[in-house]
């Protein structure tokens, strides 16, 4: 049985209540076509032998990465989470440096792209911790993502028609019009049942669930980032990943046009391209994650030759923390090692004197120290790399 293509229904269009110019009013359509998403929870899924072989190879590499590379540098998960959230946000044209994102995480009221990406990092962390693919977890992740930037819609399914591309005033010439909001409840319950199946390879299930989620488009905003966080929930639930967030968005980011093309193909009834893309992206994620671990270990070894502190000084312990959290304050170091703030500040100043960190004001009251070596690596890791 082939995978079903979405159908469309014709619906009446009611213009918004906002005043329109005479020209804009004339272009308003009387009706439009909205997607009717087929139920997939019990459908058999057929893939080519080539695609299945690719999925199997990717699965083996993901499991190996999770069991080995993710433990070479502990805890590696926070760095992978930040890198994954940066890459996922870049797909949505939200860009920022690792430094700005980390500073946003440490600031109560972060704004701009860095604040949005910091929220995405919290969302990814919740996805890794949840490991339960359900409507409740999807709503929870969306709430974490938008509770600061758009609290009025955070954690709530949309209550209006949305569309992708075309005019901002109507869906008449849109590239894609997701289902009418009255159809969301049934579509999302069907997706929940699909995510709880155990008869599909985990990467296949994650890819199809993501494509179905993006087709349903259940939120007024934040669908892409939430849909990519959902990938991690499914992989964790299926025990493919256990201790680290696979940076799969780094792979997707290398060909964003191809990524969106596979979503279009999925809506036309061709499920193979999106599954193959996810498998290739998973392979790329393990390669890039291994590269990052190796580079960070090299940086840590170089620091050993730079630091001139006494053998029993706190500064030596701070080096390991700095790899995991490349921007530190004296208060953070003091809490981590149960030391006084003065001792923590002395350790950071020693690192600064030896050229390992650079000090500067985080805000009006706090000074922070950052590792340019680690921050540059994180920026390079999340940068676009085209094959």
UniProtKB/TrEMBL annotation:
SUPFAM superfamilies for the chain: Fic-like (SSF140931), Winged helix' DNA-binding domain (SSF46785)
A UniProt-annotated Pfam family: Fic
Active site as annotated: 217
Domain of life: Bacteria
Residue intervals of the Fido domain: 133-280
EC numbers, comma separated: 2.7.7.-
Residues the entry annotates as binding ATP: 221-228
Gene Ontology MF terms: ATP binding; nucleotidyltransferase activity
Keywords: ATP-binding, Nucleotide-binding, Nucleotidyltransferase, Transferase
Protein name, entry field: Adenosine monophosphate-protein transferase SoFic
């Amino acid at each position: 049985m082939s995978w079903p293509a979405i159908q469309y229904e014709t619906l009446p269009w009611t213009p918004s209540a906002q005043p329109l110019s005479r020209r804009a009013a004339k272009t308003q359509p009387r009706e439009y076509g909205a997607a009717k998403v087929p139920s997939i929870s019990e459908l058999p899924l057929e893939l080519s032998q080539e695609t299945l072989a690719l999925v199997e190879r990717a699965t083996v590499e993901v499991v190996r990465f999770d069991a080995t590379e993710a433990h070479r540098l502990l805890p590696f998960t926070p760095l992978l989470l930040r890198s994954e959230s940066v890459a996922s946000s870049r797909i949505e044209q939200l860009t920022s440096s690792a430094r700005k994102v980390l500073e946003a995480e440490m600031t109560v009221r972060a704004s701009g792209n860095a604040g949005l990406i910091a929220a995405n990092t919290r969302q990814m962390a919740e996805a890794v911790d949840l490991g339960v693919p359900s409507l409740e977890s999807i709503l929870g992740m969306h709430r974490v993502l938008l509770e600061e930037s758009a609290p009025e819609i955070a954690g709530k399914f949309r209550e209006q028609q949305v569309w992708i591309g075309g005019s901002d005033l109507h869906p008449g010439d849109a590239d894609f019009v997701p289902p009418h909001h009255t159809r969301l409840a049934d579509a999302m319950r069907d997706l929940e049942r699909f995510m709880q199946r155990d008869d599909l390879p985990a990467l296949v299930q994650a890819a199809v669930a993501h494509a179905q989620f993006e087709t349903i488009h259940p939120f007024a905003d934040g669908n892409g980032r939430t849909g990519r966080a959902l990938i991690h929930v499914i992989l964790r639930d299926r025990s493919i990943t256990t201790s680290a967030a696979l940076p799969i968005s780094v792979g997707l980011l290398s060909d964003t046009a191809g990524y969106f093309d596979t979503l279009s193909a999925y809506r036309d009834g061709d499920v193979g391209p999106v599954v193959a893309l996810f498998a290739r992206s998973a392979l790329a994620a393990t390669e890039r994650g291994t590269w990052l671990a190796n580079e960070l270990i090299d940086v840590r070894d170089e620091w050993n030759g730079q630091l001139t502190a006494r053998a029993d000084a706190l500064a030596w312990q701070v080096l390991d923390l700095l790899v995991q959290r490349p921007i530190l304050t004296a208060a953070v170091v003091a809490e981590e090692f149960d030391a006084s703030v003065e001792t923590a500040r002395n350790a950071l100043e020693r690192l600064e004197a030896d050229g390992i960190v650079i000090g500067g004001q985080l805000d009006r009251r706090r000074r922070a120290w950052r590792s340019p070596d680690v921050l540059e690596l994180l920026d390079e890791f999340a940068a676009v790399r085209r094959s």
